[in-house]
Amino acid sequence: MVFFSITRPVCYMLIGIPASGKTTWTRDYHPSIGYASTDKYIEQVAAEKGLSYNDVFKDTITEATSRMLDEVEEYVRNGTHFVWDQTNMSKKSRAKKLKMLTGYSVVAVVFNVPEEKELAKRLASRPGKTIPQYVLDSMIKSYEAPSLDEGFTKIMIAD
Ligand SMILES: Nc1ncnc2c1ncn2[C@@H]1O[C@H](COP(=O)(O)OP(=O)(O)O)[C@@H](O)[C@H]1O
Ligand SMILES: [Mg+2]
């Protein structure tokens, strides 16, 4: 009799509003696995052009999304562990992503909304990257807590 040990690749799907600490968490805890995010390309273009995130956002978000999805497809083809660093606030937005992750253990990592003063401080710490208040409000309003029946293997709260 032959026994197979099957270990699935892991995707950490981050869930949290802007400035809740997602990218910091990734750098601190998973600095050397794959990383899917639209910000990666947007920040690269901004740096190359000597402009701010805000300056280039509108003209780069479509290309950034397409590049990110290509990267995810490559991770999935190769069975690479990776972090999916986007806000992922609604079940609908997560469902689209979970559908791509055949064969993965997907861990939801929830970032709580920092209290008002702390959030303001964190948002202010990123010059040139401003998230309009109405966008933040609508993200907070659209939040649906993740549940295992969406397809997550595990749900954890980031500290
Ligand atoms: N756990 C934390 N405690 C205090 N400050 C934090 C924490 N996580 C992130 N920050 C700070 O908050 C700001 C936003 O964090 P970031 O990781 O960029 O958030 P996100 O990726 O969710 O938009 C940064 O200035 C970062 O240094
Ligand atoms: Mg980030």
TrEMBL record:
* A GO biological-process term: alternative mRNA splicing, via spliceosome
Q: Which GO terms describe its molecular function?
A: RNA binding
| Top-rank lineage group of the source organism | Bacteria
Q: What is this protein called?
A: ATP-binding protein
Per the UniProt entry, what species is this protein from, by scientific name?
Candidatus Roizmanbacteria bacterium CG_4_10_14_0_8_um_filter_39_9
